[in-house]
């Protein structure tokens, strides 16, 4: 008998000599019964860190250890301590390194919450970079698109995380800063569409966070922070309303008669001045509801007041500038895997320019 | 053993040390068949092999939980199995051998019957080898371990294991003639 044949036959014994399934299962139960008698012990800090490190190393096993060490050194020690990377702007030599480091850092975020938080941080970084550019810079549109992508991811991870007050509060705080920063970005005509998407997306995420805060706050006894937060929202709308009221006061009397505001929630059509009063009344109702701790209804009233305010402003702006047609550019929300939106219009300034909220200091440059 | 397997084993040992029954279940599922086979060749009946296999798993669990340091889990299991086989013979002070107990034979075709006879002879032949030779044949050709792994389990050098395997195979051929 050839060695090869013999070896092959020996290896076949593996299929022939084995325990029966019945015995295997019963022995397993017996062994596990024994094992479960011992309570689960706690890990020391060292053991916990070691096991986590081993788990990661197993995941990265195909990559040689030295490469991982070098990568870790570069990402977490050399680059951060090299200084100045955080403030690197697009077009500078280390900017690609900064973006690469950001991509790698995501790998180490293990929970949806951590990922969502990190994408918010990236969105903030994009905004910071935009503010560091000059107006009309070639990178502005790209950075706004990246901002939209990061924010879409943040929203997706946020929605995938079970609602929690601390999480919603954290998101709300950060989104508020993003919203405020976004208002001061000046964009060119080419980037107007992507800017509108950015604004709408930020607004949506802000609403998500606020809704969660309200829903969770409704069921807790201590909700001082929620009261403050809702009053903050009312104050913002009131500020806006004050601006709109000034515009109404500046309108020539002859133009006032023809302009009407449709208030869908009240099913009425009124003059801008009356619409402004309705908005004021709605916000007062919101305040009363907050005092009664009816937070969900209060938020609805605040949103209603905001809508009336914005519609009134639209009508007033149209009345003030009747040569420009009114129109609305609908923002397109980016899905996490989308990297592009509808191409911005490149036609002349006589095309419809969407009305923008007054507090957004947008300067639209005339395109060719 | 690859880096990944080594790390997985270390992680399992850490979990088992902390009483993680799920981790031990994973070890059981991976090793019960090889350990049973290893013991089957060394003891006369299936029932004895089953008893000793169960004892191996219980003993290893106790020792890991007792804090015993283990470098190579698989090798440790085989070592404990060898010790328990030796204990068994010490207690019984007898060597009782049946002929082959080949299981799961259902196909009655001529070729299969011839194959089964051959396999029965091979099994019988392996059982007649010295324990060291048995081990190296079982671990290399039945369990499919590398020579380096086998050397680690039986506690010999790589070259000594290679020589042992060569001699074991020659002896088996002589027995089967």
Blueprint (SSEs and pairs):
The complex is a heterodimer of chains A (368) and B (177).
Chain A lengths: L2 H14 L4 H17 L7 H15 L5 H18 L12 H13 L4 H20 L8 H21 L4 H19 L8 H27 L5 H27 L2 H4 L4 E3 L4 E3 L1 H20 L3 H26 L48
Antiparallel strand pairs in A: 1-2
Chain B lengths: L2 H15 L3 H20 L5 H20 L7 H20 L17 H19 L2 H12 L4 H8 L3 H19 L1
Structure description:
The complex is a heterodimer of chains A (368) and B (177). With 368 residues, chain A is mainly alpha-helical. Chain A is 65% helix and 2% strand. Chain A has 13 helices and 2 strands, in the order αααααααααααββαα. In chain A, helix 6 (112-131) runs antiparallel to helix 7 (140-160), helix 6 (112-131) runs parallel beside helix 8 (165-183) and helix 10 (224-250) runs antiparallel to helix 12. Helices cover 75% and strands 0% of the residues of chain B. Chain B is built from 8 helices and no strands. Chain B has helices at residues 3-17, 21-40, 46-65, 73-92, 110-128, 131-142, 147-154, 158-176. Chain B starts with a helix and ends with a helix.
């Amino acid at each position: 008998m050839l060695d090869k044949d013999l070896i092959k036959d020996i290896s076949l014994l593996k299929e022939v000599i084995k325990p029966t399934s019945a015995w295997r299962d019963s022995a397993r139960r017996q062994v596990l019964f024994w094992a479960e008698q011992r309570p689960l012990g706690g890990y020391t800090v060292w053991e916990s860190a070691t096991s986590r490190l081993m788990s990661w190393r197993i995941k990265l096993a195909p990559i040689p250890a030295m490469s991982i060490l070098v990568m870790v050194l570069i990402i977490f020690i050399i680059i951060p301590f090299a200084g100045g990377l955080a403030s690197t702007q697009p077009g500078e030599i280390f900017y690609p390194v900064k973006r690469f480091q950001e991509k790698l850092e995501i790998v180490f975020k293990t929970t949806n919450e951590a990922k969502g938080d990190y994408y918010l941080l990236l969105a903030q970084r994009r905004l910071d970079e935009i503010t560091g550019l000059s107006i009309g810079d070639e990178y502005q549109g790209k950075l706004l698109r990246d901002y939209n992508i990061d924010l879409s991811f943040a929203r997706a991870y946020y929605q995938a995380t079970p609602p929690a007050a601390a999480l919603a509060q954290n998101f709300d705080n950060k989104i508020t800063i993003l919203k405020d920063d976004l208002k001061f970005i000046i964009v060119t005509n080419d980037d107007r569409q992507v800017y509108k998407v950015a604004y709408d997306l930020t607004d949506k995420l802000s609403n998500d966070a606020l809704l969660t805060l309200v829903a969770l706050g409704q069921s807790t006894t201590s909700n001082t922070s929620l009261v403050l937060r809702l009053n903050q929202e009312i104050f913002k709308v009131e500020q806006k309303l004050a601006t709109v009221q000034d515009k109404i006061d500046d309108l020539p009397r002859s133009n006032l008669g023809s302009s009407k505001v449709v208030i869908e929630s009240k099913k009425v059509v009124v003059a801008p001045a009356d619409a402004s009063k309705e908005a004021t009344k709605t916000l007062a109702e919101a305040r009363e509801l907050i005092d009664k701790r009816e937070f969900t209804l209060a938020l609805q009233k605040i949103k209603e007041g905001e809508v009336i305010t914005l519609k009134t402003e639209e009508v007033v702006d149209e009345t003030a500038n009747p040569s420009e047609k009114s129109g609305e550019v609908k923002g397109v929300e980016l899905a996490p895997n989308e990297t592009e939106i509808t191409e911005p219009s490149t036609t002349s300034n006589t095309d419809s320019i969407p009305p923008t909220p007054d507090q957004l200091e947008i300067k639209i440059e005339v395109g060719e | 053993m690859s880096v990944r397997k080594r790390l997985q084993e270390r992680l399992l040992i850490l979990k088992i040390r902390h009483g993680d029954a799920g981790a031990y279940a994973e070890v059981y599922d991976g090793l019960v068949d090889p350990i049973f086979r290893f013991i089957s060749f060394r003891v006369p009946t299936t029932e004895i092999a089953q008893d000793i296999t169960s004892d191996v798993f219980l003993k290893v669990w106790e020792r890991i939980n007792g804090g015993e340091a283990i470098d190579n889990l698989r090798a440790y299991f085989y070592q404990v199995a060898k010790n328990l086989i030796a204990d068994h013979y010490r207690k019984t002070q007898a060597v009782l051998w049946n002929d082959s107990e080949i299981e799961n034979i259902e196909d009655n075709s001529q070729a299969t019957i011839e194959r089964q006879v051959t396999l029965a002879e091979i099994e019988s032949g392996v059982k007649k080898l010295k324990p060291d030779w048995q081990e190296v044949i079982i671990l290399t050709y039945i369990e499919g371990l590398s020579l380096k792994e086998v050397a680690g389990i039986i506690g010999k050098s790589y070259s000594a294991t290679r020589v042992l395997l060569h001699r074991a195979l020659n002896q088996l051929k002589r027995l089967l003639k």
